[in-house]
Design brief:
13 helices, disordered C terminus, 292 residues, 66% helix
C-alpha cells in the first residue's frame, strides 16, 4: 500500500529534508553519494520487476552477498537513521528526496518532489546502475528498463551518472554542462565510452547541444531526473500534488484580483484548465504500468 500523504506525512518529509540538507552542507555526506543512491534505488526496483517478469530468481545468499559488497552501505545506514526519526516515510521516498537534494547541492535545478511511493524493502544495489563505460546500445537497453528511451534523457542522465560515480573526490562536482563542453573540446585522450557517445549520431547531437546550450541541459536533466524518480509513484499521489498546486494557484489569483465577477472567473478557469492539461500531458508521457 502507498502511504497516506496527509499533512502529517508532509511535515515529516520537510523535517527529513532539513536533516538531509544539513548532512550534505556539513560535508558529512557527499551529494554524489546521495545522487547515486537515488539512481540505484530506481534501477534496482526496475531490474527486480524485469527479472520477475522474465522468471529469473536470485538466491538469498546471492542477494546478501551482493548487498554486503555494495559500496552503498554507508548511504543506506545514513538513510536508515533518518527513517528511524521519521518512520512513516517510506524508504523509496527518502531515497528520491535525497537525490533531489543532491541535484540542487551540485548546482542543478530545484526539482519538485512528489511524495507517496509505496514502501519497498529492496535495498538499492549499485550493480544495477548503468555503466558509464557501456556502449550506446547497451545504455539504451539498461535505460529501457526504467522506461527512459529518449536520447536526450539518456545523455543528460549519463552526466549525472558520471558525477555520481566520481565520489566526493571527483574533479568536477557540478551538475552542469561543463562535462559536455570538455567532451566536445577534446581532440584526444577520449575514453572508449566517450568515443562511443560521440560516434552515435543521436547521442552526439545531444552532446553538441548541451555543450553550447546550458539551459537545454538543465531543462532536459530536470525532465529526465523527474521521470526516473517518479517511476513507480502511484498516479493518485501525482494527481493529489497537482490538485494542491492548482488550488494554491487559484487562491493566489483570487487574492490578487481586486475586481469581482468575470475577471476572477476567467482567471480561475485558466488555472483549472491548466491542471487538466498537465494531467493529460502526464498521462501521455507515461505508460499505465509505471504507476503502481
Amino acid at each position: 500500500m502507498a502511504p497516506r500523504v496527509d499533512e502529517k506525512y508532509r511535515e515529516e518529509i520537510n523535517k527529513a529534508r532539513i536533516e538531509l540538507e544539513n548532512l550534505v552542507k556539513s560535508k558529512e555526506f557527499s551529494a554524489p553519494d546521495f545522487l547515486r543512491l537515488a539512481y540505484a534505488s530506481q534501477f534496482t526496483i526496475a531490474n527486480s520487476h524485469h527479472d520477475d517478469n522474465a522468471g529469473n530468481t536470485t538466491s538469498t545468499d546471492d542477494a546478501t552477498k551482493k548487498k554486503t559488497q555494495s559500496p552503498n552501505n554507508n548511504s543506506l545506514k545514513t538513510i536508515a537513521k533518518i527513517k528511524a526519526n521519521h518512520p512513516i516515510i517510506t524508504y523509496p521516498d527518502l531515497y528520491q528526496l535525497a537525490g533531489i537534494i543532491a541535484v540542487k547541492e551540485l548546482g542543478g535545478l530545484d526539482i519538485e518532489f512528489v511524495p507517496g511511493r509505496t514502501e519497498s524493502l529492496i535495498s538499492p544495489d549499485e550493480s544495477c546502475l548503468p555503466d558509464v563505460k557501456q556502449s550506446p546500445a547497451e545504455l539504451r537497453d539498461v535505460f529501457r528498463k526504467v522506461e527512459i528511451s529518449d536520447p536526450k534523457h539518456i545523455v543528460a542522465l549519463y552526466r549525472g551518472l558520471k558525477l555520481a560515480t566520481a565520489g566526493a573526490q571527483g574533479a568536477n562536482l557540478k551538475l552542469d554542462n561543463s562535462y559536455f563542453v570538455d567532451l566536445v573540446d577534446k581532440k584526444k585522450d577520449l575514453s572508449p565510452a566517450e568515443k562511443a557517445l560521440l560516434d552515435d549520431p543521436e547521442f552526439h547531437n545531444c552532446v553538441q547541444c548541451y555543450a553550447t546550450h546550458k539551459e537545454d541541459f538543465f531543462e532536459d536533466y530536470e525532465e529526465a531526473h523527474k521521470k526516473l524518480a517518479d517511476l513507480g509513484l502511484p498516479y493518485s499521489a501525482f494527481i493529489k500534488s497537482t490538485l494542491e498546486k492548482s488550488a494554491s494557484q487559484v487562491k493566489k489569483v483570487l487574492g490578487a484580483q481586486k475586481a469581482v465577477g468575470v475577471g476572477v472567473a476567467v482567471a480561475a478557469a485558466v488555472v483549472i484548465l491548466s491542471f487538466f492539461y498537465v494531467i493529460n500531458r502526464r498521462t501521455a508521457k507515461h505508460s499505465p504500468h509505471q504507476f503502481q
